[in-house]
Design brief:
Elements lengths: L2 E6 L12 E4 L2 H16 L8 H9 L2 E4 L1
Antiparallel strand pairs: 1-2, 1-3
């Protein structure tokens, strides 16, 4: 088994109905994919996320085995 990282948008408070999720080899790649998703699906600019939001989102990234 190989370790990877995963994020499911529905785990984020207020996004419970969003079906998007990403899995990638590194946390950094997951962050990039989360940013793309936020822009495209939710009209958010990840550059506007404050540190508290980033810290919260980081808790939602899970280590998984693939």
């Amino acid at each position: 088994m190989t370790k990877a990282y995963s994020y499911a948008c529905r785990d984020c408070e207020g996004m419970e109905t969003c079906p998007a999720s990403v899995t990638a080899e590194s946390r950094e790649e997951v962050w990039q994919l989360m940013g793309h998703h936020a822009r495209i699906a939710h009209g958010e600019n990840p550059d506007d996320w404050d540190q508290e939001t980033r810290d919260y989102l980081d808790t939602l990234i899970r280590e998984v085995e693939v």
